[in-house]
Amino acid sequence: MVFIISQVKNHNRTGGEAAMGLMRRMPPKHTETALTALLSLLPGHSSDLLSQVDQPLKVLRDGENEKEFILCEYNRDADSYRSPWSNKYHPSLEDGMLPSSELRKLEIEANDIFTIYRDQYYEGGISSVYLWEEDDKQGFVACFLIKKDGSKDAHGKRGYLNEGGWEAIHVIQVGPEQEGNANYCLTSTIMLSLTTNSDESGTFNLSGSIRRQMKADLPVEDGHLCNMGKMIEELEGKLRNQLDQVYFGKTKEMVCTLRPSPDLPSMALPENIKP
Amino acid sequence: MADEEDHQETELSDNQKIDIAKWFLLNSPPGEIQYVAKDLRSVLRDDNAYQMAASEAFPFYNKTHIISLQFPDRSGDVLVSSFSEISEDEYLDPRTAQVGKIDHVKQICTDIRPAKDEELPTPYIEEYRCALDAEVCKYVAEAYPKGVCSVYCISGKDVEEPGSDFELVVLITATRLSPQNFCNGSWRSIWNIEFMDELQTVEVRGKMQVGAHYFEEGNVQLEAQHECKDSTMFQSPDDSSFSLANIIRHHETEYMSSLETSYSNLPDSTFKDLRRKLPVTRTLFPWHNTMQFSLTRDITKELGIEK
Predict the structure, then answer these.
(1) Which of A9, A202, A214, B214 has the fewest beta carbons closer than 10 A?
(2) Coiled-coil intervals in this record (chain A) (predicted)?
(3) Substitution target from A14, A250, A253 for chain B, most B beta carbons within 10 A
(4) What are A217-261's pLDDT values in tens digits?
(5) B32:A25 CB<8 A
(6) Looking at the domain A99-258, which fold is it?
(7) Which CATH superfamily is domain B66-118 in?
């Protein structure tokens, strides 16, 4: 099987391009404000912008089983959001869109398994999985979401972070079965921010977002959940490593270029580590 | 997905547009305000609003980022800051006793004139200022490949002789712009130095700020800052300057190594609290065998030990 990781392409319209240009310069912690501002300036580009810029995830509590679930465009109908736990809309909505019963079965299973996956990698946090049919009814789309507050007051087990947020959005399009295989197209976004604070070293904040794509044709007999899960695990791991080694590394390299430490003459990264 | 027609096409007022434009300009990372301005103009499509926003945002941005601009005759640099500000577009360079006229939006120095006597400190103060400038310059040349520094008197510049307090400010900045490599960064430190005549001490307050932005196929930013305090004895200009430059060197070097520690703590401690590299089980997730989880769940349910 072949995995292709590619940059998500910007579209060509000038206003939209400029808007995306602004989004990659504004501090990641202000993404929501920046996006709101751009939507008000460019109402005609709203669906483009919303599909290209991921917003910080919000959470609601499902009163039925006291479990929290994540809100996004994919579980929204009008002003209500569907809980993956009870399959009901909050606030309640009559005739809210629901997945087919077959897909709902897979959705329940995906939520259960993804909860375990999330616990093993995140040691806390919230996850939600939403599935829905494609308009042409040929395949389906799944959205796997994780939100974690890693600060020491929340789920930061080791207690290093004064503030720490991680959000992962995985949207995966699953094509119809053809000769035993299905085409999976995964787009993953990670948004994070971490802050440490101490008297000796002051405030130290790193924040950022990256988005990548991965495509694969995989045998359907292995199960959709297994195929999607493996891809998500692989891409999520890659994004974490890129953030850590390449993106954080580049900012460190920059700091050390501004004021090199006397005992460390060169902080340059090896040339082969590239995003 | 939200439908286009759902969005109210209410026209923004001029003031709202100006506020939004200012917000984008002021949130530009170090060295990137011109790029932000360019994109902003195509998004805004309203040149009047842009000009209004730019005329307010640029001076503020230039002063908070302490940008360094070269004199037109290349005889030196002037730092744009609230400490060197004579009027909104005039900034003092005490080293050359010149005042640079600044075009804030173009970020260039368009003209220079000699500083007037009343814009400069007395010879008594100037002796301290000048001695400190010389020591700080030496340190900056050693520590920063592309550093710029300046020393200003911000209070008591008319003091003629010992017997009164005065305050100097040391500014150190270093900027590295490498847009072709999608990377920009800046360091700036502000040292307030109060000479207390009666106590014969010198109180030092430092604030160091570092920013870096890497944006090749992503957007990651570092924002770090640290404040510290120190003090030394009030001595002759040369002796005071020597110990003050040492204090600055000491704190900046310490801060630099604490930044490096913060970075080296990332992979195994700080970042781990967001997401681990591997699951707690230390092996990849068993996607091919998730039945085991269902079985465990069924058993816990049957035994009634569910959480």
Answers:
(1) A9
(2) none
(3) A250
(4) 999 999 999 999 999 999 999 999 999 999 999 999 999 999 997
(5) yes
(6) Aspartate Aminotransferase, domain 1 (3.90.1150)
(7) F-actin capping protein, alpha subunit (3.30.1140.60)
